[in-house]
Every structure is written in C-alpha cells, then in structure tokens.
Amino acid sequence: MILSNNHIDNSDESAFSPPRPNIMLLGLLMALSTMANSIVAPMLPIYATKLNATSTQIGLLVSIFGFVRFVIQPIIGNYSDKWGHRRVIQAMLALFTIAGLGYAVGENIQSLLFFRSIQAIAVGGLSVSIRAYINQITTKNNRGGVNGTISAMQNAGSLLGPVVGGVAADWLSIQAPFYLLSFFSLIGLILSFSLPNVKFNQYNIDSNKHDKKQTRWPNTLYLLAGINILEFVGLGIWVTLWPIFASETMHWNSSLIGLSFSISALASLITAPVWGKISDLYGRTISGITGLLLLLIQPVAVVLFTHNFVLLWLCFILAGAGGTGYFNAYYTMVGDLSPDGDVGKIQGVLGAASQLGNSGGSILGSFIWQALTIQIAFWTDASILMICIIGFIPLFKTEMRTRKQNKTYEEELTQ
C-alpha cells in the first residue's frame, strides 16, 4: 500500500514478495545457462587447435565474444522492454541450444567463430533479460535478497561447468561439452515456459515506478555506472595479469592458478545470500563499500605478501566474497534506480559499458606491465578500487539520509 509519493507501508512485506518458485526457477535458469557457458569456455581453444586454427584465429575466437556482447546488449535490452523479458529469456536459451549444436558439428574455424558470436548474443541477452525480469518481480524490500539468491545459483553454475566439461571431454569426446551446452540450454528453455509473463508493476509497487512520464535516468545512475566501469577496469587488470604473475614470479602450476579462481568462486557462492540480506536490511551502499574493501585486499596482498601462501589463499576467499557483495549492491541499486519501462535498456547499456571497461583494463594492465612492472599494474588495480570506494561515499550519504527519513515517517504513522 502506497502511503505517499515517497513512502511505502512495509508492515506486510510478504504481500509484496514474488512467489518463491519463480525466484528459484530464475536461479535455476541462471545456473543452467552459466554452467552451459562455462562448460565450453576452457574447451573451445583446444577444439579450435584440432581444427588447425592459427594462434591469431584462436585469439579472435576469444575477443569476438566480448565485442559481440558489447554491441548487442543495449539493443537486446531495449527490445526486452518492448517485447517482454520472459520472451527474450526464451529466445536467448534457444540461441544457446543452437550454438551448442553448431559447435559440435563445426568443421572449420569459420563455423566456430559464427557460433561463438551466436553464443555471445545469448549470454549478453540472457544476462540483461534475467536481471530486468528480477526487477519486475521484486521491490526495494526484497530485491537484494533475490539478487543474492540468483548470484549464488549463477556461481554454482560457474563452478560446475568447467568440471563437467573437462570430464565429458576426457571420457567421451572433445565434442561432448558442446552437446552438453545444447542439452542444458534446452532444459532451461523448456523450464522457462513456467515463468509467468509478468506485466510492469504487477509485483513492483515502488511509487517512483508509477510515473510513466519519467524518462530521464537519475543522475545517481550515471555515478553508479561510472563506478562499475572502473571496477571492471580493475577486474580486467587482475584477470589478465594474475595468472602470468602466479606462473612466472611465484612458479605456480596451472592447477594452483585455476584453484585460486575456484576458491574465490566458492566463497562467492556461499556468501551471496548473506550479502543479499545485508543489502536489504542495512543498505545497498554498505554492501557495495564493504565488498570493494575486500576486493582491494587482493592486489595489495599479492604485491606485499607474495610468498605467504596461507595469507594469499585467505585473500582469495575474501576477494570472492567481496566481489559478490559489490555486484549484489550494484545490480540491486540499478534495479532501484531504473525508471519503469527502461529496465532492460539500462541493463543492456550498463552491461556493454562493463564489457568496455573490462577490455580496457586488460589493455591497460598489459601496457603497464610492459612499460613499468607487473607490481605497478597491481597497485593501479588497487588504486582504481579505492576510487570506486570514494565514489560510493555520496551514494552512501544519500541512502542513509533517505533511510532515516523513511524511518522517521514510519514512526510518525505509528503514533
């Protein structure tokens, strides 16, 4: 029940909660799609070499994925608002299914490049449409918790995918992971028909969403977008240079390097629901700032405590948890700030900007490494994360002021 233009009666929060089966189904779809995507990622370069691809062509196979996502996400986001997010989810899962079959029967690198582009469209479109759909079935009271649940399922898929793909390739054939991609995507497509075709504001009762004339994006959203681009620049630096540093400076083997990423993903999986509750109970910016602080520990520790094995693994765990805390806050705040009818468009534009930031970070990190040292590149990563934290300060002040005003208003109503 809306009490005024700025306040909502939260006395019966359960009345505003989307049906739990819908949330779990969305989480399952996210897990299936993420697992399907991560099943083929490690196998694709190996498969390409068996098709006599050159090193340049293999590099193109990797880079075309990010480029297509950068181009297509804003377009899909815009049409997702017009056609309905459920329809786009179904269309993207269908493309996933086609891409898997195309990989498996491909006979040359050209076919792999084509179906890699199809897969990029599916991944980008699914990311946009699922997050937009979440925004339709949640309110500010439960959006953080729902995003936490979805993120946990997504991380579970990321953990299982490489293992399933590797086992399938070893025990069956190199084509087996691609058939699995198609199989899991087809299951997701079938399950997606159980999702209700939610209309705008069916569950979302936030009063600022009812103004259909509101077309201008809030200024706060631009600040949040800038912070997220910077965070992805830092992420690009880390993902590009950490495996090189671990191999050449610390003499770690491939298994240890892979395990360092897996332990972070496991920490992310375990803590995702907790971050969701923190976001809903104490504020999005609390989750975001704390998450960034935990992420900041990682590049600093690698430079200062290079040979302290136990401390480094503890930092990987903290960074995995911190990354989830930040992204939970980010996606939830985007949902809170997005004008109704522009949710998909905003998710698409911001997703494309993130891809650009990630690519820019990879290039920046490589340049600093070659021109200076790899340690300075890690310090650059840490500095970027500190700038992100500083950027959150005005968001924190605004959120705390709003929460205080809402609490005062609710106290006045009870008197």
Sum up the structure in keywords.
415 residues, mainly alpha
Question: What separation lies between the terminal Cα atoms?
Answer: 19 Å
Average pLDDT, to the nearest integer?
81
Shape: globular
The profile of the biggest β sheet is: none
Unreliable segments of 5+ consecutive residues: 1-17, 201-214
Oligomer: single chain
- What structural class should be given to the helix and strand makeup? mainly alpha
Order of helices and strands: HHHHHHHHHHHHH
What does the radius of gyration come to?
22 Å
Number of helices: 13
Count every beta strand, where a strand is a DSSP E run of 2 or more residues. 0
Q: How much helicity do the residues have?
A: over 70%
* Percent of sequence in beta strands: under 5%
Structural notes for this entry:
This protein is mainly α and 415 residues long. It contains 13 helices and no strands. The chain has helices spanning 20-40, 43-50, 55-83, 85-105, 109-136, 143-171, 176-192, 219-248, 254-282, 284-304, 309-337, 343-371, 374-414. The longest helix has 41 residues, at 374-414. The protein is globular, with a radius of gyration of 22 Å. Residues 1-17 and 201-214 have low confidence and may be disordered.
